């Protein structure tokens, strides 16, 4: 089973291999502002299509990860490691899924602001 999630305007279409069981809600300086829920997948298992315009990246701080957003509707869609921190994985903002798809995802709260641990452990 595959499923597709999109940004608000439909420019960015992301196809996932399966519904995530868990996603991470992080309270770090950027995630708390974005309101994202992150689930990581192997890049090879995910398809990311830009129907009109490519996504726009945002890198700051230690320049290890790059957040991507749609240039049309501004939804944050995914992040990847930069060349400073290469990874075979991509993190998808699973809040792009439909509400019915989101409702069975177990949300784990990560304290990225301070202790760098899961608060539910
Ligand atoms: Zn969009």
TrEMBL record:
The CENP-V/GFA domain, residue ranges: 3-111
UniProt GO molecular function: carbon-sulfur lyase activity; metal ion binding
Keyword field: Metal-binding, Zinc
Protein's UniProt keywords contain Zinc: yes
Superkingdom, taxonomy of origin: Bacteria
Family: Belongs to the Gfa family.
Protein name (Swiss-Prot/TrEMBL): CENP-V/GFA domain-containing protein
Source organism phylogeny: Bacteria, Pseudomonadati, Pseudomonadota, Gammaproteobacteria, Oceanospirillales
């Amino acid at each position: 089973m595959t499923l597709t999630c999109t940004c608000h305007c439909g420019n960015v279409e992301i196809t996932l291999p399966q519904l995530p069981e868990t996603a991470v809600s992080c309270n770090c300086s950027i995630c708390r502002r974005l309101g994202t829920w992150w689930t990581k997948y192997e890049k090879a298992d995910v398809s990311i299509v830009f129907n009109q315009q490519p996504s726009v990246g945002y890198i700051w701080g230690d320049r290890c990860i790059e957040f991507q957003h749609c240039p049309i509707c501004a939804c944050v869609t995914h992040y990847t490691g930069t060349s400073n921190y290469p990874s075979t994985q991509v993190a998808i903002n699973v809040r792009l899924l439909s509400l019915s798809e989101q409702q069975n995802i177990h949300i784990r709260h990560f304290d990225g602001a301070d202790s760098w641990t899961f608060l539910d452990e």
